[in-house]
Amino acid sequence: MSHVAACLVCLSVVLTGGTGLLTPRFPRPKGPVLRSEYSYDTKYFTQPVDHFSFATSDTFDQRYLINRKYFEGDGGPIFFYTGNEGDITWFGDNTGFMWDIAPKFKAMVVFAEHRYYGDSMPYGKDSYKDPRHLGYLTAEQALADFARLITHLKSSIPGAADSPVVAFGGSYGGMLAAWFRMKYPSSVIGSLAASAPVWQFEGLTPCGSQYSIITQDFQKGSPGCDTRIRKSWDLLNQIGQTAAGREKLSSMFSLCSPLNTTKDVTVTMTQWLLNTWFNLAMVDYPYPASFLEPLPAWPIKEVCSLITKSLDVLEGIAAGATLYYNYTGQATCLNIQESAVSSLGDLGWSFQFCSEMTMPSCSDGVHDMFFPEPWNLTAYMAQCKSAWKVTPRPYWILQQFGGKNITAASNIIFSNGLLDPWSAGGVTESLSDSLVAITIADGAHHLDLRSSNPADPQSVIEAREQEVEIIREWLQQYYSGL
Amino acid sequence: MSHVAACLVCLSVVLTGGTGLLTPRFPRPKGPVLRSEYSYDTKYFTQPVDHFSFATSDTFDQRYLINRKYFEGDGGPIFFYTGNEGDITWFGDNTGFMWDIAPKFKAMVVFAEHRYYGDSMPYGKDSYKDPRHLGYLTAEQALADFARLITHLKSSIPGAADSPVVAFGGSYGGMLAAWFRMKYPSSVIGSLAASAPVWQFEGLTPCGSQYSIITQDFQKGSPGCDTRIRKSWDLLNQIGQTAAGREKLSSMFSLCSPLNTTKDVTVTMTQWLLNTWFNLAMVDYPYPASFLEPLPAWPIKEVCSLITKSLDVLEGIAAGATLYYNYTGQATCLNIQESAVSSLGDLGWSFQFCSEMTMPSCSDGVHDMFFPEPWNLTAYMAQCKSAWKVTPRPYWILQQFGGKNITAASNIIFSNGLLDPWSAGGVTESLSDSLVAITIADGAHHLDLRSSNPADPQSVIEAREQEVEIIREWLQQYYSGL
């Protein structure tokens, strides 16, 4: 049984024990889109597949979404979302903060899709065929796409030639926003990197920190909640040993497919539950939301309430999981294979995780409520090579983007919700006057990028105010320097 | 007749009229190496051919030269030369400044060879075969090589783990040194970019500036020198029309091969002379040196003296050219095809010039002593495509490295000799407290990087003192921050 949390917006890349199979889950919106009034035109811009070499002259069309409703020309600002691992329309719909503040800044709003996701496929249906086609799916290439797209926008849109650009991104998109300012400071005057675990790499952050944070979230959710989850693993292992036990479990969790083997319990089901608690910690928002699944406000509290009020530990766990997966009551059963169902977004991130995004994670069952699972670089390398036929470069991101030595950069806001497991690998203390950390005590995964909500805790209200203030300063600096 | 000055250390890429053939010249040392006491070990480090993608997993061995004689460990500094378009031993031998100051800084000295030059061939003899093999010859890939090599050095050499690294480079190597600090500030605490024409790109610098500077150099060389050169082009065109005239010219210049056609004169010979004057302006050093050719001190003065004292204009030109090509008296004839003889260094730069290093140059015969030759981007694109089967990306370097918008960077010294034509595209005014321009009134092409010499003019002595002082400050800042 092993796990490696890696995929960013929601989730964990699961290295299921023994099989060497990488089965990442990727967020797929299930509920209604939050704000259908976000309107944009969909456009495409031709990019070289390889910006850094001339071995291929292939090109592809990158999709981007653009709204010029508030932009009045005359060098007004451009708010530019550095798209991450998924369909860009989903990020467009889930990044309400940009839409909320664009009118007051008279900003153009652009969401740029990340290559190899959504509709931005360099080789169409063959894009994921093999390393020769897929190998250009890297952060560096994506950043270069953004730089060229910005030049195109500024040179082709009337009144935008001198427009300052501010980058926004959440999660892996936040990493890209930060790295974009580091590498292309002539393209963007500053970046808001929300919940960007830029330090979740080899040697920078203790690999178990994410699971400690999740454990704290559940501790706070309800007294004894974490203890019950901690107990659940042994109980599952025990009950999974017998056919009768597995039948009981299948029924208790209303599983779509019965648990046939011990491994179905000790590997697949425990991994599924681990992912469930990980995801809950990411989306522990203060109001009902549908980021990964439709959920009530403060879902950990709700789930923990169910977990702790049950007399039986596993029945409590089942009730908690059911809330996460079936809050709307529309599901007739729970599917523990769900984390193994791959969308293209999952696949893409799995490849990135297996090539340059070596983001270790581990649990020990002591400092967290999970089970012992060390980070094993050797196994990771072997499994990635087997799965994707590429050799990961675990240290390259450190060299490319500086690791913890990034104070030569400027004008980056690193915001982190402290409920979010990914805050473990984030920058949570300011590094300089212009590398500003903002922590949101009651925030989960990039809560600040979401649209404002009456239920917002004071901490995210203040964070957004501070962000707006800093962006305003960047713009003032820019305009005063013209 | 057309010319495009482009190749950096010496010379011009010649687009010979009509043929579309790119025939760059590259500096090949002809005289003895200046300082044979520069000693180093030759080592190799394995690099990925492609740092930014996973489409290929090919690797190659990058050569580097290393001297640890003065390095005492304990985090002492590393002086790192970012190798440019040629055999690294030649840069090692011609960058005396690093050797001169290494002892006082107790610095390790490293010269890193640029991929696809010297002994650092990614695909051995096939490296230049076609774009599929040669396409990885880009500045971005070279910078990534440097970053990985530095990590390797620091992690493998005792006492170097915390060593600050200072980059040095001249000409294209200076561009790389500057860009290296911009893109990899965690790898180097600062860079000395000597005679680095980082602004000799589309739209940043008037394309004729280089030729104006050359003209000024010859004006100063001797009264009337530039006037005589200016007159020579028409005279050559006239005399080249007849067989008798060509015979006379062949004899006057002691050419190895007779001038057979008008084009031999109006294209090949005029281009050869243009290159000759361009090169002289680059190597107008205050003491005898053998950077491109063995030459006396202040060679332009010597050449101009011959040009102006002759009663006949063309005889004066012939005498001047002869001094440049045969100062040692060992040549029995002059070879105007010389600029078409390709070494691998020439070829590599020609490819770089034709892929991402679009560095326009032009002359008009009005603001310079040459003949009208506009910069023609369309023709450049077509000729490059024909010659190398790649489509140039004329604007990419601007987007990649920020064009004139580079003030987000820090700790770069841009030094320029004002006699040097390449200073036209250099940074000659400080951009901030830590982007410092140093101009050397009496300096030709990166004179400051050469070893100190009793004949050094005061301007280069002061420039080097200032450079040492700034490097000392960077080191103090670094050590005080540990």
From TrEMBL, chains A, B:
Where does the protein end up?
Answer: Lysosome
A Pfam family: Peptidase_S28
Q: Which GO molecular function annotation, any one, does this entry have?
A: serine-type carboxypeptidase activity
Q: What class of enzyme is it?
A: hydrolase
Q: Which GO terms describe its biological process?
A: negative regulation of systemic arterial blood pressure; proteolysis; regulation of blood vessel endothelial cell migration
Q: Which cellular components does GO assign to this protein?
A: lysosome
Protein EC: 3.4.16.2
Q: Does the record carry Disulfide bond as a key word?
A: yes
Which Gene3D superfamilies did the record assign?
alpha/beta hydrolase, Serine carboxypeptidase S28, SKS domain
* The entry's keywords: Carboxypeptidase, Disulfide bond, Glycoprotein, Hydrolase, Lysosome, Protease, Signal, Zymogen
Catalytic activity, as annotated? Cleavage of a -Pro-|-Xaa bond to release a C-terminal amino acid
Signal sequence: where? 1-20
Q: Carries keyword Cell inner membrane?
A: no
Q: What does this protein do?
A: Cleaves C-terminal amino acids linked to proline in peptides such as angiotensin II, III and des-Arg9-bradykinin. This cleavage occurs at acidic pH, but enzymatic activity is retained with some substrates at neutral pH.
Q: Which family does it belong to?
A: Belongs to the peptidase S28 family.
Q: PANTHER family, per this entry?
A: LYSOSOMAL PRO-X CARBOXYPEPTIDASE, PROTEASE S28 PRO-X CARBOXYPEPTIDASE-RELATED
* Subunit organization: Homodimer.
This protein is called what?
Lysosomal Pro-X carboxypeptidase
Q: What is the species of this protein?
A: Branchiostoma belcheri (Amphioxus)
Q: What is the lineage of its organism?
A: Eukaryota, Metazoa, Chordata, Cephalochordata, Leptocardii
